[in-house]
Design goal:
Elements: E1 2-3, H1 9-16, H2 19-28, H3 36-47, E2 54-58, H4 64-72, E3 77-82, H5 85-97, E4 104-108, E5 121-127, H6 136-146, E6 147-160, H7 166-176, E7 180-181, H8 184-193, E8 196-203, H9 207-220, H10 223-229, H11 234-252, E9 256-265
Parallel strand pairs: 2-3, 2-5, 3-4, 5-6
Antiparallel strand pairs: 1-7, 6-9, 8-9
Helix pairs in contact: 3-4, 6-8, 7-11, 9-11
Length: 267
């Protein structure tokens, strides 16, 4: 697993509590993950997430994943856990505006120590967000603690595919504010060590074409909107575009990808 020292929760809070988070939402929508609605539906179908279930979304951001599950999968109740006050408050406001506050609640907490009761959820959910967590072993253990025996852990995340060089990893992790990046086997091993049976661990194949889409949108349509978010700083815009293009190259080389994981808690 590639690592970058000096990056922690406070860096993530700064990203999603400020203009950088708004910029990600501009190009990716409220569902700030690769593939948006299609990716959410794919994960829910593969994991068998459906009507009447109660779930927990770890690192839920603004709650878009929970709103998707309640609206389109018939999930009865969702609890979202996130450590960034800005996105939690935004999520509460959006759920209220959509009339969903009765089915969705937010907890402001570290996802590795949520404070939720053990065995309180039929499933635990995550979408492209666990890459921001320093201690992924502790995060997976928390997911396994929260879910009922026989319940499901279903998530997507940004992962390493083919091995990056140390220099590539350092640049990528620095730009994305990731403390480390797991791979398919690494997440599989963590799930197994937390008492789960891994049903699926695959590369979705979405990463590269979606990075192409985001860069195209910024270049062809959303340039002014993006500049406004960052105070019309054209030098910063150029620097960020350069890092996105570097990431685009890694994606097309198969060195970073979106992994999809479905596991069942067996004990």
């Amino acid at each position: 697993m590639k690592r970058k020292s000096g990056i922690g929760l406070e860096n993530v809070q700064a990203v999603y509590g400020g203009p950088e988070g708004d910029l990600w939402e501009l190009v990716m929508g409220q569902q700030i993950h690769i593939g948006g609605f299609k990716s959410s539906m794919d994960l829910a179908e593969k994991a068998g997430i459906g009507a009447g279930l109660a779930g927990v979304d770890l690192c839920c951001c603004n709650g878009a994943g929970m709103r998707f599950l309640v609206r389109f999968r018939g999930v009865a109740k969702m609890t979202g856990v996130d450590a960034t006050p800005t996105v939690v408050e935004r999520g509460r406001q959006r759920c209220k505006a959509e009339g969903l506050e009765g089915k969705i609640q937010f907890v402001l907490a570290d996802a590795t120590a949520s404070g939720l009761p053990s065995g309180c959820a039929d499933f635990v959910w995550g979408e492209d967000a666990w890459c921001y967590v320093v201690d992924k072993a502790r995060l997976i253990a928390e997911a396994a603690r929260i879910v009922k025996p026989g319940g499901t852990i279903a998530f997507t995340d940004w992962i390493e595919g083919r091995a990056m060089t140390d220099r590539e990893a350092d640049r990528f992790l620095t730009f994305m504010k990731f403390p480390n990046v797991q791979d398919l086997k690494g997440y599989g091993d963590l799930l197994k060590s937390s008492g789960c049976e891994v049903k699926m661990a695959v590369d979705t194949g979405r990463f590269a074409p979606y990075v192409d889409l985001y860069l195209g949108m910024l270049d062809m349509q959303l340039t002014y909107d993006a500049l406004k978010i960052i105070g019309f700083d054209t030098n910063l815009m150029g620097a960020m575009a350069g890092e996105m293009q570097f990431m685009q190259g890694l994606a097309h080389a198969g060195k970073i990808a979106q992994g999809l994981f479905v596991a069942r808690k067996v004990k």
